[in-house]
Design goal:
Oligomer: single chain
Strand content: 35-45%
Strand order of the largest sheet: 1-4-3-2
Helix content: 10-25%
Radius of gyration: 16 Å
Number of strands: 8
Order of helices and strands: EHEEEEHEEE
Protein name: VOC domain-containing protein
Number of helices: 2
Distance between the termini: 39 Å
Pfam families: Glyoxalase
CATH topology of the largest domain: 2,3-Dihydroxybiphenyl 1,2-Dioxygenase, domain 1
Mean pLDDT: 90
InterPro entries: Glyas_Bleomycin-R_OHBP_Dase (IPR029068), Glyas_Fos-R_dOase_dom (IPR004360), VOC_core (IPR037523)
Low-confidence stretches: none
Organism: Allosphingosinicella humi
Amino acid sequence: MNGVTPYLTIGGGRANEAVDFYKRAFDAEELGRHPADDGKRLMHAHLSVNGADLMLSDDFPEFHGGGAAPAPAGVKIHLAVEDADQAWSRAVGAGAEVTMPLADQFWGDRYGQLKDPFGHRWSIGAPSREPDQG
């Protein structure tokens, strides 16, 4: 691995469900899944999404002061693809919520934004034409 790798914390003991969702929605490849000692939560998962690493785990409040991990405000994960319509259809079909419809944008990409069932925000984009010369 190189660079920056997103590491998602999934609330509600739903990290195993999140791994399965990302496989359906974004064609993620599962590289590893490690259960916690309690047999219920997921300690760590490693996925590859469109050639990039993504890691995640269940929330473990006992390791950060007893409260739930903060909500994923202000963070969006961008998925650069060759065919935005195909990737979009797959994600929406798997249950992602549309927050900004997929459309041709002034900067030259076909682009839209989604929220997954675990509260994380995603954008999907692919070059579609030359940018506007404004």
